[in-house]
């Protein structure tokens, strides 16, 4: 705990919130087999080394929280992603049929090998859900879902690649984690985390799980109900265009997929693919103008081949 | 006279531009985003493959683990960075696989005389970790982590993926 006046001189150099989150992390991460005093010593040692702890002080300043803005690490994002994936799989069944699952994975891994794609902590994972709902979504940490309803609504592999590239883009751009960090709850939860730094091991894990649960709930709601912000959808479209270009799929794939989805039944859909904002027309216009030049001539033989293998896999 | 002046102006501008382009490779390549040649970095993902070229489409030279250290040697192929491992092996890593923050794998580790600033340290396995996940599973009994675990183990052999991509006329090795 700190007194506000001792910390204000250090705000520019070492945000207090980050230190306390590290203390929390130190307390949580060494496992309950350590005595709580040893864990606290480790955290205090770190904080003392960077000159932010001078004995026992009280911390109560909201300014310190606002200045902390600590980032969720890729490893923590991985655990959040696993929890979201588990929540989604509690709600939807995975497709047992291997042929279509393997096909979607091949497209996904091919796109994920693009130079513009960031690598999440545990790598990318692509899963087909057996559902008539028209949905495709990406959880933080690289867990990407596509429903069979969505696959049946598409017309070609190039369109499917456009959809998957868009979801990979959400992961690469860390939209899930950025959404969490920008939420109104984030600062309050961070303060909760700071307070947990004073608890013993089991209590600290319990407190961290409360925060964890909040983050997961928030993200599941984003993925299944509200969708990402308009800005994030534009960003994902643009990044998807880069990924498609790098991989050799035509940009027309994602443009056509958006148009196909625009005709779809919105009652069967959820998430960002069917929200009216941004509008499909706006998205397709932006994509078409952004990638108007620099594309190679389409090879119609390969387009035909890819479409035929798409149709064969969906039979 | 005016034509001559315009011509001289263009020549001077092109010369200056050429000098900038020729002289600045070191400047351009020495700092990409927040990285610099010679900077020591930590692997921030579970496994990072050191590739022989700036591409995922090759057999990796080595696989580094979370927390392993590398030194940046080249920035010309950003976002792929030329790196040297602690064993002296050279290769390429995608910049998303590394961070300029130090990964501390054990919170009780002796930090020695290294000057550590709070913004430069990540305590691995801290915060949201396996312990939190275990408790979360206990609290949320309808969750299906078993499928997530099985799903994570799935992979496709590089040669199978290459064949799929090439058959479809897609770019392999770029």
Brief sketch in words of this structure:
The complex is a heterodimer of chains A (315) and B (174). With 315 residues, chain A is mainly alpha-helical.
Describe this structure in words.
The complex is a heterodimer of chains A (315) and B (174). Chain A is mainly alpha-helical. In chain A, 62% of the residues lie in helices and 4% in strands. Chain A is built from 15 helices and three strands. In chain A, β2 (136-139) and β3 (143-147) form a beta hairpin. Chain A starts with a helix and ends with a helix. In chain B, β1 and β2 (35-36) form a beta hairpin. Helix content of chain B is 33%, strand content 24%. The model of chain B is unreliable at 17-32 (pLDDT under 50). By secondary structure, chain B is of the alpha+beta class. Chain B has five helices and eleven strands.
Q: Provide the gyration radius of chain B in Å.
A: 23 Å
- The class by helix and strand makeup of chain A works out as mainly alpha
Oligomer status: heterodimer
Number of strands of chain A: 3
User: Helix coverage percent of residues of chain B?
Assistant: 25-40%
Mean pLDDT of chain B: 80
Instruction: List low-confidence stretches of chain A.
Output: 1-16, 33-70
- The coarse overall form of chain A would be globular
User: Largest chain-chain contact?
Assistant: A-B, 81 and 61 residues
Structural class of chain B: alpha+beta
Output the number of helix runs of chain A.
15
Q: Kindly report the spatial arrangement of strands forming the biggest sheet of chain B.
A: 8-7-6-3-9
Instruction: Give the H and E element order of chain B.
Output: HHEEEEEEEEEEEHHH
> H/E element string of chain A?
HHHHHHEEEHHHHHHHHH
Count of DSSP H/I helices of chain B = 5
Compute the average pLDDT of chain A. Answer: 76
Portion in beta strands of chain A:
under 5%
**Rg over alpha carbons of chain A:** 23 Å
Low-pLDDT segments, ≥5 res of chain B: 17-32
